[in-house]
């Protein structure tokens, strides 16, 4: 992760993600923070927004990962899941994609919650392409 070509803010975000330290709705609930709703805004199926659901099991995000050609074996521990996906992906840019895609998912989620944005796979793709174009190789 730290050898990735993405900027530091993305690396730090990914570090928080793999340490389960992002303020998902589930974590806010565990911290006794009141929200009107603790469910995932991306799949709208009434599933609690946990880190695992938000980034690896949500229907919307499965579509994002499918577009990128990455499949996750959620039966594995996170580290093993990432290593296996990297091996199957078979490209040098896996790190950058695996860091930027969740960032774009997170910012898309936040725009829906905080700014009243709409759920849009096209908006997510545009955001991912924009962020990916900023990588200095």
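-> sequence recovered:
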């Amino acid at each position: 992760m730290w050898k990735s070509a993405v900027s530091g803010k993305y690396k730090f975000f990914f570090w928080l993600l793999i340490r389960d330290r992002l303020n998902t709705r589930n974590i806010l609930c565990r911290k006794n923070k009141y929200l009107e709703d603790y469910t995932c805004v991306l799949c709208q199926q009434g599933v609690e927004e946990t880190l695992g659901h938000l980034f690896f099991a949500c229907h919307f995000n499965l579509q994002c990962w499918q577009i990128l050609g990455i499949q996750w074996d959620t039966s594995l521990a996170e580290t093993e899941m990432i290593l296996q996906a990297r091996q199957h992906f078979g490209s040098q840019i896996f790190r950058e994609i695996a860091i930027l895609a969740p960032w774009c998912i997170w910012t898309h989620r936040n725009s829906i919650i905080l700014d009243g944005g709409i759920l849009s796979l096209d908006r997510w793709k545009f955001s991912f392409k924009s962020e990916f174009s900023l990588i200095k190789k």
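The chain has one domain: 8-133.
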